[in-house]
Amino acid sequence: MKKIMTGKVKEVYEIDDDTLEFAYTDHISVFDKIIPSMVPHKGETLCRTAKYWFKVLNDNGIYNHYISEPAKDRMDVKRVRVIRDYSQINSKTTNYLIPLEIICRHYAAGSLMDRVKAGKIKAEDLGFPKGHEVKYGEKLPQPYVEATTKLEATDRNLTTAEAKKIAGLTDSEYDEIVATTLKIDEIIAKEAAKRGLIHCDGKKEYGYDKDRKLMVVDTFGTLDEDRWWDADEYAKGNIVELSKEFVRQYYRETGYHKALYDAREKGLPEPDIPALPQEIIDRVSKLYVDMYERITGEKF
Question: Which 8-state DSSP code applies to residue 81?
């Protein structure tokens, strides 16, 4: 097999013209930066969690790219073209990765709260009455769906019009992507509730096959793409993060997050992300194993 790409957390190999193999590594990334620390078991748990959800999609008749499991930390998938030049994509293009990440939020958390505090998103944008003070952890009146870039060096928030334009989507095609995302999140929320989990938010990625039929691609429903909270603790008024959010929080507390985003806003060189302390690495590793078992109901 020929390696064709090394991503933030996985390597991609070419099997043939129609098939790729994803190999999941123990790397971890936040804020579009790869942390110079390895997290034991992370790759395998990530891959096995993703496989679990693809099988759930198959059971629910939702088309996706998953083919088979060559190893516990690898999966074979249908291949689509990666077209980085947006001008080469239009409503008739087939067999390509839609260059968007579709993010669906059900609670006020993470970067959404950062933007609310900065005044970039207003309460009414989220479905609250005008003037409502959005609080961290608050359930949104309705799902908040937005798109970011997928193939650019740093993810960039897009308006719906921008997303349709760069991805070559008609209005109805974009609507189908949003509807599919909401349907998947309904399934995830139902499954998660059985195991005492709240699915707070997450991202999905899509592609079109050779007949321009929409299919779910890449990875979703894991600790890397999605945010999870403990339902019992939430009912008591406590938010217990069960995703790599606490790693992001660590870098917020150290001041790295502010330094990084200040540099990005000013167009300055970005500071290198420091390694994680061993205590955090151990916590992350245990969390990925524990959450694999909790999300899937299977033993690691």
Answer: B
CA distance 64 to 62: 6
Per-residue pLDDT of 148-182, as tens digits, reads 999 988 889 999 999 999 999 999 999 999 999 99
Q: What sign for the dihedral angle of Cα 49, 300, 189, 183?
A: positive
Residue pair 109/137 in contact (Cβ under 8 Å)? The answer is: yes
* 24: Cα separation from own chain's centroid: 15
Q: Is 171 exposed, middle or buried (0-12, 13-18, 19+ CB in 10 A)?
A: exposed
Burial (Cβ within 10 Å: 0-12, 13-18, ≥19) of residue 85: exposed
Question: What global pTM score does this model have?
Answer: 0.91
Note the pLDDT of residue 153.
80
Going along 84-130, which residue ranges are E strands? 96-97, 100-107
Question: Which residue in this structure is represented by tokens 């992001």?
Answer: 248
- Non-local (6+) Cβ contacts of 270 within 8 A are 33, 260, 263, 264
CA distance 203 to 277: 28
Q: Are 39 and 288 in contact (CB under 8 A)?
A: yes
Q: What is the per-residue pLDDT for 261?
A: 94
Q: Are 158 and 147 in contact (CB under 8 A)?
A: yes
Q: What is the DSSP letter of 221?
A: S
Q: Which two tokens stand for residue 54?
A: 């693809």
Domains contained in the chain, CATH given: 80-270 (3.30.470.20)
pLDDT of residue 246: 84
Q: What is the pLDDT of residues 212-256, one digit of tens each?
A: 999 999 999 999 999 999 999 999 999 998 988 889 999 999 999
Cα separation, 162 vs 92, in Å, equals 18
